[in-house]
Amino acid sequence: MTAAARYAALLQWLRSNDADISPKIDLQPSSRGGGYGAFLTEDAVEGELLFTIPRKTCITLADSIEDDACGEGFKALIETAGPGGNTVVMAGFMARERIRSLESQKPGSIVDDSSFGPYLATLPWERGMNNQEHVLYWDNKDIEKYLKGSMCYGEALDLRKEVDVAIRVLNTIVGKSIREFRGDYLDSGFQWPWEKAAQASEEKLKGPPEGLAEAVKGAFVCMLTRAFEDGDGDEEKLVPMLDMLQHSDEPNISHAMRKSDGAVEVRARQDLTAGQELLNQYRSELEETMPYHRFFTRFGFVPGIQEEMTNLFEDKSSIFFAQKAEI
Ligand SMILES: C[S@@+](CC[C@H](N)C(=O)[O-])C[C@H]1O[C@@H](n2cnc3c(N)ncnc32)[C@H](O)[C@@H]1O
């Protein structure tokens, strides 16, 4: 499917699920590099509602813990891992849904698509999809070659370790569900507790089903680069369309969650003209906890830099390498 067809399917899916999207909005390759973005085809005035995304089309923690097959396992994981477990759980849910969606597209498949199928199809599951760059997609050789000695090295290694552990843990929760819809797992009906325990350890021994490791990695990249909170104790969630907007430290939109129903509203922050790209501020570039090298490890880009990141590492750019004081 071409990118244009994928985004047309996304808009159709959103509208058929009660999203209200202004006809003035068009999805096109971004003017800032790094994949696609959203543009205006006509002027808009300050405060104008550009789109409203209903809660049911967002991927939230609730979707994961209320899942019929894996919800209980996800809840237990959060209880043991604490709040840090939320991202792991959402990555597990998304990965299982992505695999279900791919499975449903195979010729002759009788597997139902994920209810998030058209949205999942627009996400960067692999390096280069939507021009997405991320250290989670690099191989060990490139991590050593480019990042060693840089301020990104430790954080990138920690993140990669976290994802490796998550893949192993998530296999014990979503592995069976994936094997079931693939027809690789036959439910043997009633089981005594000791039989269930034996089956669970057998599952562990089998290792992750095909595609799970890659899908969990992709889901982590999506969470890190496009999940945002709407304030007021809200948890990180994926909001289709809002997550199409590129970052700028001078955003021209604002977004807020509607208290009554959890829908997300996106409005023009100022008068805008036809052709302008809509821009969101992911994190302030002045935040001390988010220096540019951390922007790169988390979001896969450095604001304002269009050059290949690997060139900057080869040149030992001061963005990534601490400079020795001159005498
Ligand atoms: C929330 S998504 C935005 C939509 C994305 N471009 C797409 O095609 O799906 C975030 C990703 O977009 C890219 N991106 C966002 N803002 C950018 C900017 N100012 N410069 C370069 N890339 C940017 C980066 O790859 C980032 O990880």
UniProtKB/TrEMBL annotation:
Ranges for domain SET: 23-283
Matches recorded under PROSITE patterns: SET
GO MF term list: protein-lysine N-methyltransferase activity
InterPro entries, alphabetized: SET_dom, SET_dom_sf, SETD3_SETD6_MTase
Protein name: SET domain-containing protein
